[in-house]
Every structure is written in structure tokens, then in C-alpha cells.
Amino acid sequence: MALSVVVLAVPALVAPAAAAGPGKSRECATPSIDRLQQWLASGEGTTIPATGSLLVPARKGYTAKVTFLNDEWHVVVVWLGNQFEAQADLSRSAGFRLTYSATEDLYVQLRPASHWSGGAQWATRIPSTHGRTVTRFFSFRPQAWTHVPELGEPAHSFAAALSEARGLVFVGKTANELEFRGLRVHRYTPPCL
């Protein structure tokens, strides 16, 4: 099965920027998690919400919540540069730290600008937390990334995916309750829009 991603225009909600603490980047003036403003349900797979932004107010800023329904492929997109046309060179990054909860395993794909569409992408497994919120580091070492056999082998190198990264795309084939509270990429600060 080929997975594509639909580009959505999402209206921004306005919120005051959070104060930056020592060693922390300032949040954006519009809703964001670690300066990432575009957390999107793509419309692929049955999800709640079905499309649009996943960001909802939380005690300290925002969180991204989505529910995957049914045993079918679901797709959630995070644009690293906060707009579809942007890309980031992550070739000097060690990886990313994700704060999340998931009731089932899923994958995250690193999608480059030149090979954005389709399910044949470099991916790493995001393990279930059984509904608990945890923080885990996911390395960008090539050995830590593979592909999802059912979705096909990438036609591009992992180095190419890192050097022209457009987004992180979370995919899963089972029902899942997901919440994302943090996503920080080593040596990369997303630009606020």
C-alpha cells in the first residue's frame, strides 16, 4: 500500500509566547510544541481528529492529541520548518528527543523534500508506552533506521533523507491513543511562522 500525504492549510490559533527558561528555546506566538507549529492529521486512515491541527491547550502550553481507529494505516505529519515548502539539514544532528504516550507501537518516518510522498521511507519504531507519558531519545545513526516492509524500501539514501528533511511522519496500522508533549531535534531550532 502506498501512503501519500495531503497538504493541508490549517488556520493558526493565537496564543501568547511562553517565557523562555535557561537553555530552552522560546515558543512561537501561535500554538506550538518545542517551536513545531504544524502537527497535522493528514486524512489518511480513520483518526480523531480526521484532518487539521492536533494541537490543543494544555497546562503549560500545548500538546498534540490524536486517536487512530481501526486496523488500517494512519498518518500524522510534523513539518520541521513549519511549512510544507521548508526543509532542514539534519546531517549534523544526533537524533531527536520525543515526549509522548502511545497505547500501541507505531513508526516515525523521516521524509525528505525530494521523496516526500509514498510509504517507502526510512523509519524507526516508536514503542508503545502503554498509555504512560515518557521521554525517549531516537538516534539518527543509520543503523537505527530501516523501512516498514509492508510499505516498501526507500529509493533514496538515509543520508539524503537527513540532509533535506521536510518532516517527521508518524504512521501506524493499529488503533492507538497518542499524545505528543515534546519533540526536540538535536542541533536544530524550528523557525516560528
Overview in brief:
By secondary structure, this protein is mainly beta.
Order of helices and strands: EEEEEEEEEEHEE
Task: Tell me the domain tally.
Answer: 1
General shape: globular
Low-confidence stretches: 5-23
Major β-sheet annotation = 6 strands, antiparallel
- Order of neighbouring strands in the sheet with most strands: 3-1-6-11-8-9
- What is the CATH architecture term? Sandwich
Can you tell me the CATH class? Mainly Beta
According to CATH, the homologous superfamily is Galactose-binding lectin
Question: Which structural class do the helices and strands define?
Answer: mainly beta
Kindly report the CATH topology.
Jelly Rolls
Helical segment count: 1
- Could you tell me the radius of gyration in angstroms? 15 Å
How many beta-strand runs?
Answer: 12
**Average predicted confidence as pLDDT:** 90
What percent strand?
A: 35-45%
**Residue share in helices?**
under 10%
Distance between the termini: 34 Å
Description:
The protein has 193 residues and is mainly beta. The protein has a single domain, classed as Sandwich (Jelly Rolls), CATH 2.60.120. It is built from 1 helix and 12 strands. The strands form 2 sheets. Strands 3-1-6-11-8-9 form a 6-stranded antiparallel β-sheet. Strands 2, 4, 5, 7, 10 and 12 form a 6-stranded antiparallel β-sheet that branches. A hairpin with a 2-residue loop joins β4 and β5. The protein is globular. The chain starts with 38 loop residues before the first strand and ends in an 8-residue tail after the last strand. About 10% of the residues have low confidence.
